[in-house]
Write a structure and sequence with these properties.
This protein is α+β, with helices and mostly antiparallel strands. The chain is built from three helices and eight strands; from the N terminus they run βαβββαβαβββ. Helix 2 links the parallel strand 4 and strand 5.
């Protein structure tokens, strides 16, 4: 079982910030062999939330929760990851469940939009997300926009 925290940028310690950026770079840049500008200034926005899942003191699951208007017209969930040590354990499902619960808490009765890697469309579909775009390439990786309607 993971321990969870959902914090604003200002609430993150420098150690937490380092660990979450390291996890994001390890998964999105190194594992996926995709050099791109990982830091996009959305992390520091006052109403952005960082959902951290810890196992034995290490971040093994993460998602960034953003208010309406920052990435999409609706609330959005992005930078969703589980580390290689955590994959296959079902914690990805728990991560999305937690992300949805926190979105409902911070931005009640709001639709949620995501830019999902295309191969994960079925995974997100299990939570009620439906496609709203055709496939597009983002940093060389096939993506699809999806939406969960309240």
């Amino acid at each position: 079982m993971l321990n969870w925290q959902c914090l604003t940028f200002g609430e993150l310690t420098t150690t937490q910030l380092y660990a979450l950026v390291q996890a994001r770079i390890n998964v999105f840049v190194v594992e996926q062999n995709c050099p791109y500008p990982e830091l996009d200034d959305k992390d520091t926005q006052a109403c952005a939330r960082h959902l951290l899942g810890y196992e034995n003191g290490d971040i093994v699951a993460y998602a960034r929760l953003l208010p309406p208007g920052l990435s999409y017209p609706s609330v959005s969930i992005g930078r969703v990851l589980t580390t290689s040590q955590c994959r296959g354990s079902g914690q990805g499902y728990t991560l999305i469940e937690k992300a949805l619960a926190y979105c409902a808490e911070y931005w009640p009765e709001q639709d949620i939009e995501i830019g999902a890697q295309e191969h994960l469309a079925g995974f997100y579909g299990k939570f009620g997300f439906t496609p709203t775009s055709t496939m597009y390439l983002e940093d060389g990786i096939p993506h699809i926009d999806m939406k969960l309607t309240c």
